[in-house]
Recover the amino acids of this structure.
Protein backbone atom coordinates (compact mmCIF):
# COMPACT_ATOMS: atom_id res chain seq x y z
CA UNK A 1 0.00 0.00 0.00
CA UNK A 2 1.28 3.48 -0.81
CA UNK A 3 0.59 6.41 1.48
CA UNK A 4 -0.36 9.89 0.32
CA UNK A 5 3.34 10.79 0.30
CA UNK A 6 4.06 7.98 -2.16
CA UNK A 7 6.02 5.82 0.26
CA UNK A 8 5.24 2.27 1.28
CA UNK A 9 3.08 2.01 4.38
CA UNK A 10 1.64 -0.84 6.38
CA UNK A 11 -2.10 -1.38 6.35
CA UNK A 12 -3.13 -0.63 9.90
CA UNK A 13 -6.63 -1.59 11.00
CA UNK A 14 -6.31 -1.25 14.79
CA UNK A 15 -4.25 1.15 16.90
CA UNK A 16 -3.75 0.28 20.56
CA UNK A 17 -2.98 3.34 22.63
CA UNK A 18 -2.89 4.57 26.20
CA UNK A 19 -5.23 7.17 27.65
CA UNK A 20 -2.86 10.14 27.45
CA UNK A 21 -4.83 13.38 27.41
CA UNK A 22 -2.94 14.70 24.38
CA UNK A 23 -4.84 12.13 22.29
CA UNK A 24 -8.40 13.38 22.47
CA UNK A 25 -11.61 12.72 20.60
CA UNK A 26 -10.31 14.52 17.50
CA UNK A 27 -7.41 12.05 17.33
CA UNK A 28 -9.78 9.07 17.51
CA UNK A 29 -12.03 10.65 14.86
CA UNK A 30 -9.04 11.14 12.55
CA UNK A 31 -8.13 7.47 12.99
CA UNK A 32 -11.68 6.34 12.26
CA UNK A 33 -11.70 8.52 9.12
CA UNK A 34 -8.79 6.36 7.89
CA UNK A 35 -10.66 3.12 8.79
CA UNK A 36 -8.45 2.54 11.83
CA UNK A 37 -10.12 1.44 15.07
CA UNK A 38 -8.58 2.99 18.20
CA UNK A 39 -8.42 0.60 21.17
CA UNK A 40 -7.74 2.21 24.53
CA UNK A 41 -5.65 0.42 27.12
CA UNK A 42 -7.30 0.16 30.54
CA UNK A 43 -6.52 2.61 33.31
CA UNK A 44 -3.65 1.67 35.62
CA UNK A 45 -2.11 -0.78 33.19
CA UNK A 46 1.47 0.52 32.80
CA UNK A 47 2.97 -2.86 31.85
CA UNK A 48 0.47 -3.53 29.06
CA UNK A 49 2.48 -1.37 26.70
CA UNK A 50 6.00 -2.31 27.88
CA UNK A 51 7.16 -3.99 24.64
CA UNK A 52 6.01 -1.08 22.50
CA UNK A 53 7.57 1.43 24.88
CA UNK A 54 10.91 -0.42 24.72
CA UNK A 55 10.80 -0.58 20.92
CA UNK A 56 10.08 3.16 20.70
CA UNK A 57 13.01 3.82 23.03
CA UNK A 58 15.26 1.71 20.78
CA UNK A 59 14.09 3.58 17.67
CA UNK A 60 14.73 6.91 19.32
CA UNK A 61 18.15 6.05 20.78
CA UNK A 62 19.59 4.16 17.81
CA UNK A 63 18.61 6.50 15.00
CA UNK A 64 16.02 9.24 15.54
CA UNK A 65 18.32 11.14 17.90
CA UNK A 66 20.77 11.44 14.98
CA UNK A 67 18.44 12.87 12.33
CA UNK A 68 16.27 15.90 11.78
CA UNK A 69 13.12 14.59 10.11
CA UNK A 70 12.06 16.93 7.31
CA UNK A 71 8.69 15.51 6.24
CA UNK A 72 6.58 12.34 6.62
CA UNK A 73 8.14 10.66 3.57
CA UNK A 74 11.59 11.21 5.11
CA UNK A 75 10.43 9.55 8.35
CA UNK A 76 8.95 6.67 6.31
CA UNK A 77 12.32 6.16 4.59
CA UNK A 78 14.24 6.29 7.88
CA UNK A 79 11.86 3.86 9.54
CA UNK A 80 11.96 1.40 6.61
CA UNK A 81 15.77 1.35 6.71
CA UNK A 82 15.79 0.94 10.48
CA UNK A 83 13.26 -1.91 10.39
CA UNK A 84 15.29 -3.71 7.72
CA UNK A 85 18.35 -3.52 9.97
CA UNK A 86 16.40 -4.29 13.17
CA UNK A 87 14.64 -7.39 11.81
CA UNK A 88 17.32 -8.88 9.54
CA UNK A 89 20.70 -7.95 11.01
CA UNK A 90 20.57 -6.63 14.57
CA UNK A 91 21.16 -9.30 17.24
CA UNK A 92 18.42 -9.64 19.86
CA UNK A 93 19.56 -10.87 23.27
CA UNK A 94 16.17 -12.49 23.96
CA UNK A 95 16.68 -14.63 20.83
CA UNK A 96 20.22 -15.89 21.59
CA UNK A 97 21.70 -12.92 19.70
CA UNK A 98 19.96 -13.81 16.46
CA UNK A 99 17.85 -11.55 14.28
CA UNK A 100 14.09 -12.22 14.20
CA UNK A 101 14.04 -12.72 10.41
CA UNK A 102 16.57 -14.11 8.00
CA UNK A 103 19.48 -16.45 8.34
CA UNK A 104 21.02 -16.81 11.81
CA UNK A 105 24.74 -16.12 12.15
CA UNK A 106 27.00 -19.19 11.86
CA UNK A 107 27.86 -20.99 15.08
CA UNK A 108 31.55 -21.05 14.17
CA UNK A 109 33.30 -18.28 12.37
CA UNK A 110 35.18 -19.25 9.25
CA UNK A 111 38.94 -18.87 9.68
CA UNK A 112 40.46 -16.30 7.41
CA UNK A 113 37.20 -14.92 6.02
CA UNK A 114 37.28 -11.18 5.47
CA UNK A 115 35.14 -9.04 7.77
CA UNK A 116 32.72 -6.79 5.90
CA UNK A 117 30.53 -3.95 7.07
CA UNK A 118 27.06 -3.17 5.74
CA UNK A 119 25.77 0.29 6.65
CA UNK A 120 22.32 1.82 6.77
CA UNK A 121 21.25 5.44 7.07
CA UNK A 122 24.56 6.87 5.99
CA UNK A 123 26.61 4.78 8.41
CA UNK A 124 24.55 5.40 11.54
CA UNK A 125 23.57 1.71 11.67
CA UNK A 126 26.32 -0.83 10.99
CA UNK A 127 26.28 -4.59 10.58
CA UNK A 128 29.55 -6.54 10.54
CA UNK A 129 29.72 -10.01 9.04
CA UNK A 130 32.40 -12.43 7.92
CA UNK A 131 32.68 -13.76 4.38
CA UNK A 132 32.86 -17.50 3.91
CA UNK A 133 36.45 -18.72 3.71
Amino acid sequence: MKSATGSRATKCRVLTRDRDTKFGRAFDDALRAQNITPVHLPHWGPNLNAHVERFIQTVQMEYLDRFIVIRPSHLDHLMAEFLEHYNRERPHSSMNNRPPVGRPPPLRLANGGAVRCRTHLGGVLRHYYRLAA
